[in-house]
Amino acid sequence: MNKSKIWLSSPHMGGSERKYVQEAFDTNWVAPLGPNVTGLEQDLEKYLSKGEVAVGVLSSGTAAIHLGLVLLGVTSGDEVICQSMTFSASVNPIFYQGATPVFVDSELDTWNLCPIALEAAIKDRIAKGKKPKAIIAVHLYGVPFQIEAIRAVADAYAIPILEDAAEALGSSYKGKKCGTFGDIGVLSFNGNKIITTSGGGAIVMPTVALKERAIFFATQSRDDAPHYQHSEIGYNYRMSNVCAGIGRGQMEVLDDHVGQRRAMHDFYGAFFNDISAITVFTVPNDDYFANYWLSAILVDPEKANGMTRETIRLALEAENIESRPLWKPMHLQPIFKKYPYYGEKVAETLFENGLCLPSGSNLTEEDRNRIHRVLSQLFGKKG
Ligand SMILES: *Cc1c(COP(=O)(O)O)cnc(C)c1O
To answer: What CATH number is attached to the domain comprising 339?
Structure first.
């Protein structure tokens, strides 16, 4: 096969990343601190809320989730509620703290945390003797979760929200950016995300005081002393100034990337418009603005004449085009299946019938034509 691979989502450089990285070398700021680290944090603060939040950039989104749990006081023996349908990185840090997860189903409008199942879970855990310490809510594929309904439940029981916005930089709800809705927010700049620092993440907090606390933990929890003195457990989670240089360049093209991802979503929307067996995952109403990090489709088995998401995936794969089933829910994962789960089979059914399609901001007209040809053949459309 000599056709080049079309990826689901791959790094997309804007151009000025090299300039910032070069500066890091020229000034010898090749360390987990420096002007790019500070600069990227300021860029993000401005982008997210014109400076009303404090951002700390870290070595990964997973590190940010872990530090978020630390800051929320999650500790050994605690329970933490987590959206079941997500990437495992939303859950693993619960275990780093010696706590355990309680999984909750999704709803069909946003594919994210179901507020009804969430409340049922909280009530039952309290009845069983333990109030959950935090709620991890995710904006899957860049579609915001039901912000108001989830916030109302969380506030009713006074449980903080850790907002996993790893896939949702550039998304917003009623004009407010994702990453700023949680008691603590998390971003990821992994290679496949909407912007990348090759690997990295950020923690978003309401106050500078909390940010100082986060940076304290992220830099080995050093007490104020001339020698190395420690009164708390620390982590080495700070972002490198070299990586932050890539991030500063990427911030200059973030809105372009969002536009290009949304154009891919429009492309699939137009293609599947007259195919009743397929729905393209789309925000429920205009309050929601999605970056459509990944465009995802759902196959209706009753209308698909035996076609499944696997039929589509394999047809694309045969042409060297990557696609992937939706996140397999955490309560179905071998490592997590013994933990409590609340809900029905929404996440499970989405997983069975859903597929993520190539969505990168760097896909070319030729790439789109190749995808169009394969899908046209499969769905019996004139190419
Ligand atoms: C990518 C991702 C993470 C983890 O971010 P990393 O930077 O890869 O550690 C966490 N949660 C979700 C939902 C993600 O998609």
So the answer is: 3.90.1150.10
Closest residue CA from atom 2 of ligand 1: 166
Of the three residues 221, 253, 285, the one that is the final residue of a domain is 253
- For the chain, the domain total comes to 2
Residue 167 beta carbon below 6 angstroms from any ligand 1 atom: yes
For ligand 1, what atom is nearest to the CA of residue 167?
15
Q: How many angstroms separate the Cα of 41 from the Cα of each of 98, 135, 143, 195, 213?
A: 30, 25, 24, 14, 15
62 lines ligand 1 (CB under 6 A): yes
Residue of 90, 140, 293, 330 to test ligand 1 pocket, by largest number of atoms within 8 Å of CB = 90
The CA distance from 372 to 55, in Å, is 40
Look at residue 238 and tell me if it is in a domain. yes
Judge whether 381 counts as a catalytic residue.
no
CA of 351 to the centre of ligand 1 (A): 18
The domain that holds 127 is classified in CATH as 3.40.640.10
Domain that holds residue 272: 255-379
Answer whether 0.90 is exceeded by the pTM.
yes
- Residues 315-348: pLDDT tens digits? 999 999 999 999 999 999 999 999 999 999 999 9
Amino acid 2: pLDDT:
60
Q: Indicate whether residue 90 lines ligand 1 (CB < 6 A).
A: yes
Q: Which of 253, 281, 315 is the last residue of a domain?
A: 253
Q: Residue 226: is it exposed, middle or buried by C-beta count within 10 angstroms (0-12/13-18/19+)?
A: exposed
Q: 């579609």: which residue's tokens? A: 143
* Shared-domain flag, residues 240 and 332: no
Same domain, 168 and 186: yes
In a domain, 139, yes or no: yes
